[in-house]
């Protein structure tokens, strides 16, 4: 199955998060098929509703104050 979606492919999770934070049109960072994307929230919701497996990317502050990128899986077993 092929699903077309509008997104900007970036080279890392960090870059996808930075782009999503800077661009109000592409405000969500996801990991899909091993690639990092910035996309619109509505697009990620459409992918989720279609049953596509992907993960949201988020910055998470650790107890020591450092930051890590974490993934939140969608439609995975």
Rg, Cα atoms, Å: 12 Å
Shape: globular
Strand content: 35-45%
Please state the structural category.
alpha+beta
End-to-end separation in angstroms reads: 19 Å
Helix content: 10-25%
Main sheet: strands, sense, barrel: 5 strands, antiparallel
What tags apply to this protein structure?
77 residues, alpha+beta, 5-stranded antiparallel sheet, 2 helices, 5 strands, 39% strand
Question: What would your notes on this structure say?
Answer:
The chain is of the alpha+beta class and 77 residues long. It has one domain (7-74). It has two helices and five strands. The protein has helices spanning 13-22, 41-49; strands spanning 7-10, 28-32, 35-39, 54-61, 67-74. Strands 1-3-2-4-5 form a five-stranded antiparallel β-sheet, sandwiched between helices. β4 (54-61) and β5 (67-74) form a beta hairpin. The model has no long low-confidence stretch (mean pLDDT 95).
């Amino acid at each position: 199955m092929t699903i077309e979606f509008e997104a900007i492919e970036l080279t890392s999770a960090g870059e996808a998060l930075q782009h999503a934070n800077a661009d109000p049109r592409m405000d969500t960072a996801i990991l899909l098929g091993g690639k990092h994307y910035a996309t619109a929230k509505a697009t990620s919701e459409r992918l989720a509703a279609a049953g596509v497996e992907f993960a949201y990317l988020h910055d998470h502050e650790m107890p020591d104050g450092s930051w890590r990128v974490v993934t939140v899986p969608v439609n995975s077993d």
